[in-house]
Design a protein that fits this description.
The protein is an alpha/beta fold. The chain has helices at about 5-20, 20-30, 30-45, 60-90, 100-115, 135, 190-200, 215-225, 235-240, 270-285, and strands at about 50-55, 55-60, 90-100, 120-125, 140-145, 155-165, 180-185, 210, 230, 250-260. It contains ten helices and ten strands. Helix 1 packs across helix 2 and helix 2 (about 20-30) packs across helix 3 (about 30-45).
Amino acid sequence: MKSPSLASFRFFEAAAQTGSFVKAAESLHVTHGAVSRQVRLLEESLGVELFERRSRAIFLNAAGRSLHAVTHSVFEQLEGAVYRLQQMAQGETLVVSCEPTIAMKWLIPRLPGFHKKNPDIHIHLVAAGGPIDFSRSGVDVALRRDDFHWSPETYAVKICDEWVGPVSRNEKAAGASLDGAKLLYSGTRPKAWSAWQRSAGVSLKGSSRVDYEHFYLCVQAAVSGLGVAMASFLMVQDELHNGQLHAPYGFLRDGSAYYLLSPQPLEQSDKHARFQEWLMQEVNSCLSAVDSPGAYAGSSAV
């Protein structure tokens, strides 16, 4: 049996994405008949139909949905690789992997400053956390919290300590305890509240618990007034500054830290070294406020 061509998968992907052979043909700049023929050839090669054909409408069946889940991911990765290659042709590209919440709440809002100082370096940002395989991912550097063990061959430069504290929309949440408060827990940092309580010595008697899948969702829930979140200072600095959130107990170090990881010494590459220098300057500038008594605390900064 002849193996299906890459072109037939591309035609299938376009049809699955648009839900129409006509629209797929328009997006690919070919005829409607060409799309229909390629999809039919693919179905014959696989020995299974991929669409339900109803009059002039088409709908993915179970087999089609299963295949589309794969083709969509493959072509998305291919488009991303092409984009990165095009950027490389235009100048230096630095692929940076960063934990999602730090990327969304802290790094992305500050990247225009990096581009202004380094117009010849294009940052391609990948949101991811935990262990990373530099050889397979194509990532140049990764910003990670040290909550996992990385390979001894990985070069790591400490960027800063992690500072955490309770935050909420209620400015008057300060007091001797958080008794009866609604505490927002994150699946990615399940022990954050208990660790903070041991260090801060604050009562949580009678508090209730609401679980969220990700740290970012906890922060957004706190901004919406749904409870008190245990947050990283870096992730909520902007909300504290504009008054969306308040930190009645200030912030304290939780014993973890952020590192910039690389498969090679950062100083061996100009773009790596420049990104590291800028990153440390930005972090130090942001964290200079966390040590200021009362800067973000309703009662006492820890």
